[in-house]
Amino acid sequence: MKPDSHQPPDNAIGATSSQSTSDTPERVAELIHRVARKDRQAFALLYQATAPKLLGTVLRILRDRGWTDDVIQDSYLKIWQKAEQFQDGKSSPITWLVSIARNSAIDELRKHPAGRTTNSDELDEMPGRQASAQEQLEDQRAANQLNHCIDQLEKDRQDMVRLAYLNGWSREDLASQFEQPVNTVKTWLHRALKQLKRCLES
């Protein structure tokens, strides 16, 4: 059976490689262009060259290695599918790859603001957890309301609030991530919190 060109090779994505991201931007860009032509060998080489960098980005956001590994796999699936959208000169190749991984991680954080939920099999093995179903429902409602209010903020503020208050990023980390002075980050967060408070109380 002919491999599905929309899916990456099965053995290309796995545990992250220990290889450093020593490839030049030109080499990474070349690999992305080859991936756009559904070159599976290039996809495996791209993964080996860039996975450690993307892993660090996602792990910094989610703070959970198992969750991070899942998001990394999803990110490379998106890279396989969207490689033809990469444009030389518009952004550096590693910046383009990192943005896909970062957006995937933030999307996951948006879906699960309190962290990824425990699966039903694990719940069955934990005595007394079934009795907390009402609490879990109330927590989910509160999370849904919080997400709704965060969605009312400007896009950058949404990501900043989630990283700061749902994932514990420092003001310095946020300043580096969003390329803004620390005082600007503090001002944005202060204004965002006032807007969230009004929304939650309405």
Number of helices: 9
The geometry reads as: elongated
Mean pLDDT: 77
As residue ranges, the low-confidence spans are 15-21, 117-131
Instruction: Decide which structural class fits the backbone.
Output: mainly alpha
Q: Quick recap of the structure?
A:
The protein has 202 residues and is mainly α. It is built from 9 helices and no strands. The protein starts with 24 loop residues before the first helix and ends with a helix.
Task: Describe the protein in words.
By secondary structure, the chain is mainly α. The chain has nine helices and no strands. The protein is elongated and about 55 Å long. The chain starts with 24 loop residues before the first helix and ends with a helix. Mean pLDDT is 77; it is low at 15-21 and 117-131.
Features:
mainly alpha; 9 helices; elongated; 202 residues
Topology:
Blueprint: H1 25-36, H2 40-62, H3 65-82, H4 93-111, H5 120-124, H6 133-150, H7 155-166, H8 171-178, H9 182-201
